[in-house]
From TrEMBL:
Source organism (scientific name): Flavobacterium cerinum
UniProt-recorded name of the protein: OmpH family outer membrane protein
Family (UniProt): Belongs to the Skp family.
Keyword Transmembrane: yes
Domain of life where this protein originates: Bacteria
Amino acid sequence: MSDNRFRVLVAINIALFLLLAGTISFFILNNSDRKIVYVDNVRLFDGFNMTKELKKRGEQEFNTRKKVLDSLYVTLQQEGISEVQKEAITRELIAKKQEFEAFNQQFAAEESAKIWSRINGYTTDFSKEKDYDLIVGSENKRNVLYAKETVDVTNELISFINKKYEGNP
């Protein structure tokens, strides 16, 4: 009796294994026409016109704030100012420097978030237009162990998002 049970269990296990293998094969073969591509996130971000525009605006604000710091530093270095004036200028310089550093961090974080939000929206449109099932983002191919050069669509996506950003269909 236990010999029959063993044979039944083996037969059931073999049948389940074959069913599982068949199901996996079906999904692999059925999905072989999936389109999976990747982009280099750094090149994508840097190549996006919105990034370039916001960077210019940020540099203008950066330079304006830096001029204030430079001016305070020059004033601090002048001969003939009293110790009381030096202390006051030093306190102001420290406060302005902290504001400057906070501005830089906040500006970079906020602008990057805006840029990535826009890139993600345009990438969705791009994926639908090209019928891609998956676009993998990678920084300098660190997350992609191997990919044919033909699946790197970074330049194509940069062109697409810049056209969308500029209002061209």
